[in-house]
Design goal:
alpha+beta; Lipocalin; Toxin-antitoxin system YwqK family antitoxin; two-stranded antiparallel ribbon; 16-stranded mixed sheet; 2 domains
């Protein structure tokens, strides 16, 4: 019995030592850049929809790679045993960074940033274990906030800004036993002007609901029955949206 325990302990120590050596080798490889092309690897998704990187020998990749396309860097990433682990970067045809992500075990982790082709910050968001935490903030090229996105209690909220003020909000709303995709429009003082709701029920695909400044129902529009009224509201939506995006 004692011999078996000693043998098991020796095997466990040996296994632990081997794993430590493998991890050390992986760390060295991940910190040493290699230049490759798109012909040198392939990416597949596993059953959990996570990307796995394989080389041409069908081996899981470990290392720090710079992918060159037409003589210029196109992507840069670190992988560990096939999973993205560390930096992921994407570049445009001019060599400008457009995406700067961080990964751990194949999932986005920490601060994620995107950039305009001219280099200005486009958006930033934080992730934990592949899920966004807090808000994603979108900027214009002058650095002004244009939109904020967040997921709260499983509901996605999108808010769009004009001159630093909230102008449009999108979210789902439970109303009268229906789930509505809402678009709420605000004035320059962030007071509600009006809102529209569209049901996800396929039986109501031609119907939308209009709400007043107090979020009370003011009109129900069926585009097959009253196309003129529907056209009026659609024009109002388009004009308001265009004014925000200017």
């Amino acid at each position: 019995m004692v011999k078996k325990l000693l043998l098991f302990a020796s095997f466990s120590i040996l296994l632990f030592s081997c794993n430590k050596v493998i991890d050390a080798v992986d760390e060295v490889r991940m910190n040493s850049k290699q230049t490759i092309t798109y012909d040198d690897f392939e990416v597949v998704r596993n059953d959990y929809d996570i990307k796995l990187y394989y080389d041409n020998d069908k081996e899981l990749m470990t290392g720090h790679y710079v992918v060159v396309y037409q003589g210029k860097p196109s992507e840069e990433f670190q992988t560990k045993r096939g999973f993205l682990n560390g930096v992921y970067a994407s570049y445009n045809a001019d060599g400008q960074l457009t995406k700067g992500y961080n990964y751990k075990d194949g999932k986005q982790e920490g601060l994620q940033r995107e950039f305009y082709g001219s280099g200005e910050l486009l958006s930033e968001a934080s992730f934990k274990k592949g899920k966004m935490v807090g808000e994603k903030v979108v900027y214009d090229q002058l650095g002004e906030v244009r939109a904020k996105h967040k997921i709260e209690n499983g509901v996605e909220y999108k808010r769009y800004f004009k001159n630093g003020k909230m102008a449009i909000a999108e979210f789902k709303r439970n109303w009268e036993g229906k789930v509505l995709d809402m678009m709420v429009y605000y004035d320059a003082f962030e007071n509600i002007q009006f809102a529209f709701g569209k049901s996800s029920d396929p039986n109501e695909k031609n119907i939308f609901y209009v709400f007043d400044a107090n979020m009370q129902l003011s009109d129900t529009v069926d585009i097959t029955i009253d196309p003129q009224k529907a056209s009026y509201y659609m024009g109002l939506i388009q004009r308001t949206a265009m004014a925000v995006m200017e």
